[in-house]
């Protein structure tokens, strides 16, 4: 292929000489022989036959005009044929008058008949081939084959040049993809899919025609636009979908469009393009939205969440998740003492540093990873309880948080029994904390499972009580041993004296149901004194202690529980 040859002429190029006069053919062959391979055709028709057959071989055509099939007809055929267009044509003529016409037919150069200086002729032909090869090499890598748009690499390069040329013009980056394009290709075939892409590229081309901007094509069905800023793109998808109807017929072609408005030109174009595409992706499952606008905060959050999910499996294997223990103090006696602790998980990651559960618990609940994490925590908790019993002779009750998602695991109860019994831990020292809202959301499934856990001898603690609005009469049906007053009440009681009344009421309610009350998030002496006075049994909070790492917790229990 001519394109793959280097343009320094180390390989002999091929010239097709077309002339109906034998003598002209001979003269030209003699001139060219040393420098080129020469093919000959004696009229337009023969020239076209050779061209169509050997297009790959031929690097340039020298064309006579007045022949049985006119040279101009050959030029017309060439104009219609993409492949032939990449071959330069030089017209050899003595007639000055037809030059202009030939130019319009796409001729690249002229050589005057009769032939004069052979060296000049050879040099001109060489230069023309060189020029064409450089151009077509560039064209080939610059453009997407199907749509003839800039490919992604060149798009980014020209986007940068666009910035340099118009430094003060605010600009937007857009990524436009066809929804379910893969499916369309599978269902309706490659041909229609290709056609769609070509039509979309033309439509988008029209969109930016009257504006400052450039259009490019990424892989798949994604197009990119970098153009002068516009406040609103909400019309764009409708325009595209409507204009496409002609090609797409019954197929409902819809788009997802990501817009990164007012791009900061100092940000690398790779990053800008990636962010814009990721923005478009955020609506791939949301059929109510067609245009998504890049927003740095959201984007960073999304990326960070994905990173956390990716890191999870290895983190669990490497025991990056650490159990912390927050002591709970009995207060209805002369001197408060530690009676138990809540297990709170911490992720200490070499990559992200300290990650708080507020950041990852919800995240892992949405993708099923929480099950693995909580299983690990339940197992570890039982193992620690065993080790404290063995090392210090202490049976320290622990409360383990169970995610609402865990409840639906088929063998949950058996699993818990397994962890606890195999470590020789008393089941009644093993507390399961489950948030009140889990009961409220789906009490029909949740209550029987919690009941089963309780029937097997474990203790149940209703967490965040008062935040989930379970009605008082349904409370009577809930299986539980401990009510944990929602931290929000403790926070609010300093601001609003009425809240104190509510707290008292919850404590009395629990007493009426033979349950123990725990207040969490207690930070001040005033809060502590009020709760003690109101009859609250247990307190957990910074007032006594923050959640502690293993070594500190062990130190504390050996000092205070013995
Ligand atoms: P939660 O179960 O309501 O846990 C109480 C949260 O309050 C803990 O936050 C604890 O560190 C914090 N806290 C304790 N005392 C005070 C205080 O005096 N003042 C203030 N401002 N905060 C206090 P943490 O550890 O960040 O946990 C947040 C939530 O993450 C927990 O809320 C729980 O829903 C979840 N979580 C933590 N560990 C686990 C776990 O092992 N499994 C599951 N499924 N969820 C967990
Ligand atoms: Ca809890
Ligand atoms: Ca809580």
Summarize this entry quickly.
This protein is of the alpha/beta class.
Task: Jot down its keywords.
562 residues; alpha/beta; Rossmann fold; Alpha-Beta Plaits; TIM Barrel; eight-stranded mixed beta barrel; 20 strands; 20% strand; disordered N terminus; binds ligand C2E; binds calcium ion
User: Whole-Å distance between the termini?
Assistant: 88 Å
CATH architecture of the largest domain: Alpha-Beta Barrel
The chain-level structural class is: alpha/beta
Tell me about the biggest sheet? 8 strands, mixed, barrel
Q: Hey, roughly how much beta strand do the residues contain?
A: 15-25%
- Portion of residues within helices: 40-55%
- Count the strands? 20
Rough shape?
elongated
- List of distinct ligands in this structure: ligand C2E, calcium ion
CATH superfamily of the largest domain: EAL domain
**Spatial strand sequence of the major β-sheet:** 12-13-15-16-17-18-19-20
How big is the Rg?
39 Å
Give the class-level CATH name of the largest domain: Alpha Beta
User: Helical stretch count?
Assistant: 22
Report the mean per-residue pLDDT as an integer.
89
How many domains is the backbone divided into?
Answer: 3
Low-confidence stretches: 1-10
